[in-house]
Design a protein that fits this description.
CATH architecture of the largest domain: 3-Layer(aba) Sandwich
Number of helices: 14
CATH topology of the largest domain: Rossmann fold
Largest sheet: 8 strands, mixed
Number of strands: 14
CATH class of the largest domain: Alpha Beta
Helix content: 25-40%
Radius of gyration: 21 Å
Number of domains: 2
CATH superfamily of the largest domain: Glycogen Phosphorylase B
Strand order of the largest sheet: 3-4-2-1-5-6-7-8
Distance between the termini: 16 Å
Structural class: alpha/beta
Order of helices and strands: EHEEEHEHEHHEHEHEHEHEHEHEEHHH
Length: about 375
């Protein structure tokens, strides 16, 4: 099994993190190899991550390097082809076109898992010319949500080639705090305020992730909310392709001008996301575009109430408004602030929403259940090749 993705651990991306979670859940049953692109010069071309071989092709984002990077991807894939039965694409970009073609030429089965509505979903790809035509030739498609499935139904892709399998979350790692004492101990160790309510959000500082909308909503909270602490987890590095330097500069500039540095925290790349979530009170997801967010599932599994932007095919299939959290219109800081204010001021409601969130994670998104569905898909594809 060849997993083809963008950034892979220790580089961070949503698709790469979900790929790693799935690989770790199934590596005892499936022989995995990972082929990833990388923007870090310090990572080797071949390494072992969690006991799985990971091949990396440098792709720094410079236009002139694309032909060389494309050739390296091809050369690596050709070298691996004899040990591969299925190629599983996590997302779709134009740089994968030739890999698709070669996988077909070498008789490999192709699994395509689109990662975002408005990015690589089937309706968007149907308008993408040659890329869309190649994309549509996959042997199987994975839809991560009912909303994404609806987009497949509205496309020309045969329903028999589509499986609805959600993203999965490690329910042992991501769990609610067991006590107030655990929360306090975590906050002390992580350098967080020990008494203020903490609103946390995970994601790159991009316009699609909309941290500026959350920041504006937080600024609108009245003094009666008790000055909650705002915690951003995600890269603000302006050299990262996912990061919008103008968004970073605007938020940090306002923090400096208004003297808010003691009330806002920034955490860059970290392996302790689970601990930060357990130490927090509310999860905010203001993103304008999502598939099925890993961070959102991790927040649910951690027993956090969620306030999220309403995204058809994304958050609408995960958050039950008024049950596990609140949904608001995208790009509406006033509505976001209103719902955050409600949760900050009502601890029993936070507990109720958080318990429902954990139950939803347990019944619908545990990685063991998700991995079993993928194993069934892989086996079905192999049967078709015999």
């Amino acid at each position: 099994m060849l997993m083809l993705t963008g950034a892979y651990y220790p580089e961070l991306s949503g698709g790469g993190l979900q790929c790693r979670t799935l690989v770790n859940a199934l590596k005892a049953s499936v022989g995995f190899t990972v082929l990833a692109t990388s923007r870090r010069s310090d990572l080797p071309a071949l390494a072992s991550v969690d006991g799985v071989p990971v091949y990396r092709v440098a792709l720094r984002g410079h236009r002139g390097e694309l032909p060389v990077a494309g050739w390296r991807l091809l050369r690596t894939f050709i070298g691996l082809r004899r040990d591969v039965d299925i190629v599983h694409f996590h997302g779709f970009t134009s740089k994968m076109l030739v890999i698709y073609a070669l996988a077909r030429l070498f008789g490999k089965r192709i699994v395509e898992k689109p990662t975002s509505v408005g990015g690589d979903d089937p309706l968007t790809m149907s308008r993408a010319g040659l890329s869309g035509s190649v994309y549509a030739r996959a042997d199987a498609f994975v839809s991560v949500s009912p909303g994404m499935t609806a987009r497949f139904r509205a496309s020309r892709i045969p329903p028999a080639r589509v499986r609805e399998i959600p993203n999965g979350v490690d329910l042992r790692r991501f769990r609610p705090a067991s006590s107030a004492e655990e929360v306090r101990a975590l906050r002390v160790r992580l350098g967080l305020p020990t008494t203020a309510p903490i609103i946390v959000s995970v994601g790159f500082f991009s316009r699609d992730k909309a941290p500026h909308i959350l920041f504006e909503a937080w600024r609108r909270l009245p003094p009666t909310t008790g000055q909650p602490y705002l915690l951003f987890i995600g890269s603000t590095d302006p050299t990262h392709i996912e990061v919008d330097s103008q968004v970073v500069a605007a938020i940090k500039g306002e923090i400096g001008r208004a003297g808010l540095g003691e009330r806002v925290g920034f955490v860059e790349a970290t392996d302790a996301v689970d601990e930060y979530l357990r130490a927090s009170d509310i999860y905010a997801a203001p993103s304008r575009r999502e598939g099925l967010s890993n961070a959102l599932l991790e927040a649910l599994a951690s027993g956090l109430p969620v306030v999220a932007a309403r995204i058809d095919g994304g958050t609408t299939g995960t958050i039950r408004d008024g049950y596990t959290g609140f949904l608001v219109a995208p790009d509406d800081p006033a509505a976001l602030a209103n719902r955050i204010e409600v949760l900050v001021g009502d601890p029993p409601l936070r507990v109720r929403f958080g318990a429902a969130a954990r139950q939803l994670a347990e019944t619908g998104f545990g990685i063991e259940m998700v991995a079993a569905k993928y194993l069934e898909l892989y086996r079905d594809l192999l049967v078709k090749t015999t």
